[in-house]
TrEMBL record:
CDD domains: cupin_QdtA-like (cd20292). InterPro entries: QdtA_cupin_dom, RmlC-like_jellyroll, RmlC_Cupin_sf. It comes from the Bacteria. The lineage of its organism: Bacteria, Pseudomonadati, Pseudomonadota, Gammaproteobacteria, Thiotrichales. Residues 6-133 form the Sugar 3,4-ketoisomerase QdtA cupin domain. This is FdtA/QdtA family cupin domain-containing protein.
Length: 136
């Protein structure tokens, strides 16, 4: 996969003096149906998350509160993206190594995923991932 397939998606933002509202619809705002939602929180200062790639899973990563960085790696190119708005999401395609770091205090990272959890979908070893992308 090409790192340029991963991109920031802007979501609708309905502004209201009582509080703003943003919504996300699968196959409308994002290119997949949402099968799973999970979130990371209380990440200690200096900690990193991620450190893996998925064979088939599509994801959307959102900073619901606070901020953090996502480092993407397609085996040839790397890109660091700072997320800090709850109405923006980072689409991450399959076969993309990702790491998350630089979490601000109180940050919450929400992930929308195209499939339910499947351990067989993971590359957890970077060398194995590089070998897989170099043979495609």
């Amino acid at each position: 996969m090409d790192i340029n397939l991963c991109k920031i998606i802007d979501f609708p933002k309905i502004t209201d003096p009582r509080g703003n509202l943003t919504f996300i619809e699968g196959h409308n705002h994002i290119p997949f149906d949402i099968q799973r939602v999970y979130y990371l929180y209380d990440v200690p200062g200096g900690a990193e998350r991620g450190g893996h790639a998925h064979k088939a899973l599509h994801q959307l990563i959102i900073a619901m509160s606070g901020s953090f960085d996502v480092i993407l790696d397609d085996g040839k190119n790397k890109k660091r993206i700072h997320l800090n708005r709850s109405y923006h999401g980072l689409y991450v395609c399959p076969m993309m190594w990702r790491e998350l770091d630089n979490f601000s205090s109180g940050s919450v990272c929400m992930v929308l995923a195209s499939n339910k959890y499947d351990e067989d979908d993971y590359y957890r070893d970077y060398a194995e991932f590089i070998q897989a992308v170099s043979t495609k």
